[in-house]
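task queued by scheduler; priority normal; single chain, no ligands, no partner chains; default sampling; output format set to structure tokens
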Amino acid sequence: MTSAPRFPLLVLLMMLAAGAPPLAAQTATPTLPPGVYMGEEDYKQAPAGTFTLDGDHTSVLARVSHIGYSYSVFRFDRAGATLQWDPANAAACTLSATVDTASIASPVKGFSQQLAGDDFLKAHAFPQASFKSTSFRQTGPQSAKVDGEFTLMGKTKPVTFDVALVGAGKGFAGQPRIGATARAAINPTDFGLPPLFGETIEIVIDGEFERKP
């Protein structure tokens, strides 16, 4: 019978002989730079006020059927939003957001330009998609439904986002933050898109908002 490799045991003995701490003891808890605070899973940690979207820490994705075989994911790289936030009264919260349709990106070479062109999003004629909330409905300690009017290619339809809190807190250098993930589904033909995308397009947003001093 073959004996087990002895190399790891020899390494451990050499480390102990040299006075090195065990491997578990060498794993230190990472420390944050001064003035940076970790987010908490408690929306009340973000104080009331006007928050703006941090585009560097936000993603807007469209998940669409690839002619019934799989799902393709397109990303929009330019978005902006303003959140009027009140942790004590969800019904008082409002959200207004825009996405530059020409900023769509696809991993398929050359397809981004086609998606932004006249065959699909017509970004030259309709440079922005937008969402304006009409109500916030808290559904749990860390979740809500946000109803609103979604406009794409000049057509406006009601859309509801299911929103889940990711983190809230003091943020960076006294600038509080709140972040959430949101999902909604739209019917592409409602907005003039061709039916080859299937019956629904899923919109997935991971957004982080910051309150300026």
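post-processing summary
- The domain at 43-211 is CATH 2.40.128.110 (Lipocalin).
- Residues 170 and 181 are 19 Å apart (CA to CA).
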